[in-house]
């Protein structure tokens, strides 16, 4: 399995946001690290096919993602930065709703949703309305919904925003426990969030990929 990002360029109006970004990922956990405004969200949205690049391609197993997009979507899990929750639904109902949207088999959906809610530590509040959830709880619900279809590619945009230190540890364990047959990309502007989770770090600065390497090696340089 591989995901190849090739010569991606993106402009908004006449401003260049991403400059000729290329890299290939094999299964593993990757941290996309960069300051606010560096272009992380834009790049992740392009990888998910939600935003179109002006130039370049994203290939999954050597095929352009838009060639068989429905197929690609079905193996993709995405937590966008501005994820919409439905405050009047309970956590469990929300998960069931996302499962239905993603075409998860009805019989297994309930079990899968309950299992994921347990994994992210929301079992006790699954029957409470989302409007009563804390920021960290919502974030963990966002991570759970991204994993509903057991995605091969899991993309989490700033997943640790709003998590308290205890929740951050839970999050690390959760990501660490994911099967190694997935490509996981998580973006953050906080070095320590990815230093110990990610197998590799990609550093993006002003729309350019400036470094890529093993987390512990790169962090030494900072
Ligand atoms: P990051 O996720 O690293 O904070 P973003 O990808 O959100 O960075 O943003 C990179 C740059 O692109 C920023 O300057 C931002 O203002 C700009 N940008 C992002 N989305 C849009 C958009 N839809 N229209 C215009 N500019 C955008
Ligand atoms: P709408 O039908 O309202 O346009 P979508 O279902 O396309 O909404 O997307 C809803 C949200 O989920 C958006 O914020 C989008 O970025 C995100 N998204 C898009 N594609 C996927 C996907 N394959 N998996 C998870 N989230 C996705």
Please characterize this protein's 3D structure:
GO terms for molecular function: ATP binding; ATP hydrolysis activity. Belongs to the ABC transporter superfamily. This protein has 222 residues and is an alpha/beta fold. It contains 8 helices and 10 strands. It has helices spanning 40-48, 69-74, 91-101, 106-119, 135-146, 165-176, 191-195, 215-221, and strands at residues 3-12, 15-25, 28-33, 55-60, 63-64, 76-79, 153-157, 183-188, 200-205, 208-214. Strands 6-7-8-3-9-10 form a 6-stranded mixed β-sheet, with helices on both faces. Strands 2-1-4-5 form a 4-stranded antiparallel β-sheet, covered by helices on one side. The chain is globular. The protein starts with a strand and ends with a helix. The model has no long low-confidence stretch (mean pLDDT 92). The chain binds adenosine-5'-diphosphate (2 copies). One adenosine-5'-diphosphate binds next to helix 1.
Bound molecules: adenosine-5'-diphosphate
Which class best fits the helix and strand makeup? alpha/beta
Beta strands, count: 10
Q: Major sheet: order of its strands? A: 6-7-8-3-9-10
State the major sheet: 6 strands, mixed
- What percent strand? 25-35%
- The Cα radius of gyration reads 17 Å
> What count of helical segments does DSSP give?
8
Helicity range: 25-40%
Unreliable stretches = none
């Amino acid at each position: 399995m591989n995901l190849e990002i090739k010569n991606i360029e993106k402009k908004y109006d006449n401003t260049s946001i991403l400059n000729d970004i290329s890299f290939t990922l094999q299964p593993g956990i990757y941290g996309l690290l960069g300051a606010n405004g560096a272009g992380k969200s834009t790049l992740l949205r392009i990888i998910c096919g939600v935003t179109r690049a002006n130039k370049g391609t994203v290939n999954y197993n050597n095929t352009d993602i838009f060639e068989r997009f429905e197929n690609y979507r079905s193996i993709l899990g995405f937590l966008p930065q501005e994820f919409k929750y439905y405050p009047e639904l309970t956590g469990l109902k929300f998960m069931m709703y996302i499962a239905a949207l993603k075409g998860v088999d009805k019989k297994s959906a309930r079990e899968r949703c309950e299992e994921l809610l347990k994994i992210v530590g929301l079992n006790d509040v699954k029957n409470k309305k989302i409007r009563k959830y804390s920021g960290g709880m919502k974030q963990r619900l966002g991570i759970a919904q991204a994993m509903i279809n057991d995605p091969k590619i899991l993309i989490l945009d700033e997943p640790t925003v709003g998590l308290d230190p205890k929740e951050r540890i839970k999050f690390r364990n959760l990501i660490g426990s994911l099967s190694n047959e997935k490509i996981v990309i998580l973006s953050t502007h906080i070095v320590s969030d990815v230093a110990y989770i990610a197998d590799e770090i990609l550093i993006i600065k002003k729309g350019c990929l400036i470094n890529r390497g093993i987390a512990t090696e790169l962090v030494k340089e900072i």
